[in-house]
Amino acid sequence: MAIEAGDFKTGLTVMVDGDPWQVLDFMHVKPGKGAAILKTKMKNLKTGSTQERNFNANTKFEAAIIEKKEAQYSYESGGVYYFMDNETYDMYELDEAQVGFNKNFLTEGMNVGLVFFEGECLTLSLPGKVEVTIVETTPAIKGAPSTQSKDAVTDTGLTIRVPQFIAQGEKVLVNTEDGKYAGRA
User: Fold this and answer.
1) Running DSSP on this structure, what letter comes out for residue 128?
2) Residue 99: helix, strand or coil by DSSP?
3) Contact 168, 136 (CB under 8 A)
């Protein structure tokens, strides 16, 4: 099925240069002269790299058929992450490069989405926000303004900035896109 660049939507997956790419962001630009162009930010689902690319608005692309399966994170050993399919109980392995920044949010037993292309497990997708526990932080400073923040370490090993009132042992929400504090859980 052919998809024109002018029909791009966030999250759409298309084939570019033989690889599946996902559209992260796009903007239509109509210069004073010439044809309209589409400025995109895209992620290569095979390599995990992100690029900004420009296309003519009437360029056609083939749709990349991506399959997602629900799986449960089991454990990590030697840089390999193991996931169990929730329906068939098959085990899938992803290396550290495939998991990437997402490793900072994985907790044992967590449900994730595994992304497949032509039968090959490429990466995983997480919800927009995940719940983590603060395992290390300094006590709140009395009289500190509410806008002041401090460092805190989560149970997954991620260091984030949190408001002064957050204490050790509290559960907080973290944005999985940028790893920033998103509120109390």
Assistant:
1) S
2) helix
3) yes
Nearest by Cα to 125 from 78, 182, 173, 66:
66
Q: Is 103 helix (H, G, I), strand (E, B) or coil?
A: helix
CA distances from 24 to 69, 74, 75, 94 (A): 21, 28, 29, 22
pLDDT along the chain (185 residues), means of 10: 82 89 89 85 86 88 91 93 92 89 90 91 89 90 81 92 90 91 89
The torsion angles phi and psi of 105, rounded to 5 degrees, stand at -120, -5
Distance CA 51, CA 171 (A): 34
Could you give the CA distance from residue 83 to residue 33 in angstroms, rounded to a whole number? 52
Distances (CA, A) of 147 to 86, 150, 165, 178: 42, 10, 10, 19
pLDDT for 132 equals: 92
Alpha helix ranges (H) inside the chain: 96-99
CA distance 167 to 93: 35
Structure tokens at 24: 């992260």
Q: Write down the pLDDT at residue 111.
A: 93
pLDDT at 80: 93
Pairing of β 171-175 and β 181-184: antiparallel
